Amino acid sequence: MSKELTENLLDLIKSLSKSEKRNFKLYAQRNSSGKLKFLELFDALDKTKVYNEKLILNQIPNIKKTQLSNLKSNLYKQILKSLRLSHVSADERAALRESIDFSRVLFNKGLYAQSLKILEKAKGNAKAFNLHLLLAEIIDFEKTIESRYVTKSLENRAEELAIESKTNLATINKVEELSNLALRLYGLYIKVGYIRSKKDAEIVKQFFQVNLPKHTETELGLTEKLYLYQSYSWYYYIMQDFVRYYKYAKKWVELFENKSNQQFELDIYVKGVNNLMSSQFNTFQSKNLALTLERFNQFTANLTRLDNNLEMQILYYKVINQINLHFIKGDFTLGCKMVPEIEKQLANYIEKFDKNRLTIIYYKIACLYFGSGDNKNAIKYLNKIINESSQEIREDINGFARILNLIAHYELENTDLLEYQIKSVYRYLKKSNELHKVHQEILRFLRNLSHIRPDSLNREFKILKSKLVKLREEPFELRPFLYLDIISWLDSKLSGRTVETVIQQNYLKLKR
């Protein structure tokens, strides 16, 4: 067994819950009264944090080194089989596949009527849950059986199955087109973030228009509408049209008003709710965001049998949107009190968490500390981003982290560090194509600080603010202001108030 597969086995074992481990042992011992070698290996691996072959062989003397590879391979398969059996009742897809398997067993026995009966029930469930690919497999198998099991009604059945198959395949094609578009747009956002220029906007717009299939929304089924709304959501998000982003994120969530749909497509539903909260944040809907977050917390608190992936998703969505709510209100000091609990929760998933999501959490935490005036802790979390060597990290987040890091050092009067760091940040932003006009103005201001007399400092702050206010009106310079409220920082310097006070007072003026 290769090193990669050994690591996969260890990761799989570590991902099991207590009940899953108990079920696996019961499954493994169902036909045996003695101690099984692969089960002994399971116990040994369950107790270790790092795989050590020599130590394992010493712990289990009846296992020879030559047997270990096959035992690990068998153990991996046995765990997967156990998990499949235990999850069938909670996973409609797995239950349908089991029904198809049962039907095939009966077909091979020549029990065609029984086989068709199982398929008929399975087909109803596939339609109810919009599982079009499985429905296609069921219809295809029905056609095979009907060709062997001749009855007087075959002529009508043949026509019915042909129509069903044709209709379902048309739906599958539409779903494929829309799901591919949604996925590619999401991938584009992960790679580059928001549009950066008029050229970017034209490229994204053309890509969307060319790949959006012709459709009449009212004639689409639930799955087709889901991918349509996802596509529009990502498109308007990338284009920074947050009003339309909110419109389609809301439509996405409204598809799941039926509670059975929420439970069945749980990961897609919670992602939709997160996008709705994101759109509410970007359109400054503090009341709606607070209400949606409260409902989301209540909904997820009642969920059972969550897998690790979904647990991580839910944790991320809760953390980000709670922090966003603090951002809107300017409650930075209150938000900072969440950080120890966030760190504690993240510790359970730190090795498995997506690097980009982890980076965004760190950036949001850094902004909380910066807003509260705790620049040392802000720098601590910004360094977690700046020092990350992974190529997966979005360059835009890294760029904004470096700019905020400079401002935090300025606030701490670390003037000796600034000159070197400004040059380093400039080189990074230029190389990564993230050098916005906003960044240039901030860097120019910080670079000239050593030449500005104390009595002229306020005047320079006013000049910088005037330039940035104008830039904020330019559509392709909006991105930096979404990541860093630099205007509020400048207002705090000019008025002698804290950043937190400035944002809180602005919130009270715009409260809605």
Please tag this protein with its features.
mainly alpha, globular, 27 helices, 77% helix, 512 residues
How would you describe this protein?
By secondary structure, the protein is mainly α. The chain is 77% helix and 0% strand. It is built from 27 helices and no strands. Helix 9 runs parallel beside helix 11 and helix 19 packs parallel to helix 21. It is globular. The mean pLDDT is 87.
> Which sequence of SSEs, written as H and E, runs from N to C?
HHHHHHHHHHHHHHHHHHHHHHHHHHH
Low-confidence stretches: none
Mean pLDDT: 87
Number of H/I helices = 27
Distance between the termini: 60 Å
Largest sheet: none
User: How many beta-strand segments?
Assistant: 0
Describe the secondary structure blueprint for this structure.
Layout: H1 3-15, H2 18-28, H3 37-47, H4 53-59, H5 65-87, H6 92-108, H7 112-128, H8 132-148, H9 154-192, H10 198-211, H11 222-238, H12 242-254, H13 259-264, H14 266-282, H15 286-301, H16 308-329, H17 332-336, H18 339-347, H19 355-372, H20 375-386, H21 395-411, H22 415-431, H23 437-447, H24 457-472, H25 479-483, H26 486-495, H27 499-510
